[in-house]
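Exosome complex component RRP43: structure, please.
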Amino acid sequence: LSICFRTVEPLEYYRRFLKENCRPDGRELGEFRATTVNIGKSCCSITTADGSALVKLGNTTVICGVKAELAAPAADSANKGYIVPNVELPSLCSTRFRSGPPGEEAQAASQFIADVIENSQIIAKEDLCIANGKLAWVLYCDIICLDYDGNILDASAFALLAALKNVQLPSVTINEETGSSEVNLKQKNPLIIRKHPVATSFAIFDDTLLIVDPTAEEEDLATGTVTIVTDDEGKLCSVHKPGGSPLTGAKLQDCITRAITRHKEVKKLIDKVIKSIKPK
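Here you go.
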């Protein structure tokens, strides 16, 4: 009976749970799904990547591979490298996505990740410059969803951060006589990660009720969503709110407080995994 009711009246079905301050999957309104992260070679088969990570948020599974290439800096920012993010939501990860060029949701997710990189200053682009006006690193950050069940933004931001922390770049020098670049693959250095931005997403139900880490079904039934990005110091990097129900100042503050707590949990998780894979 409840399966029929859920299919015919999904919103009413959800409301009955929300009245009791819980959700159909057994979680409380402010509870995240089980979160796991694997970093580097142990996590995936992207052997060509300079850094990689796989993040699972409940059933949502995202992989991020970072590929570093050398290029000339742009004329207007001669002392900076580039970071180029791209989020893919292939048809394989969910029936909601079509094959072909990136859809609206994938484009919005890519733009969100680009904004997170810019606003949080996760990496100073000056750190990617090798020789002023001559040579710089370009980091291509490809984030691919393997299994979609909502909250792609949190999973993507987490996978990006974990993958960047895994990147080792070879040392590069420019030969003064020939002007050519010389790459030393034996000497590698980790990226300087200046900030650890973490995204925390909420779905808004019936214009008033906030639930954290929504599933795909919850996103579909929600009257709006909001994603808060915070850094190590609890500072706000960005608030992403694509339309939908407005939020009162008090509700927004509530989201920010929850996001700061979540930041600590995610940072702890990454640190633990990195510690476990470092050579003893």
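Notes: The longest helix spans residues 249-277.
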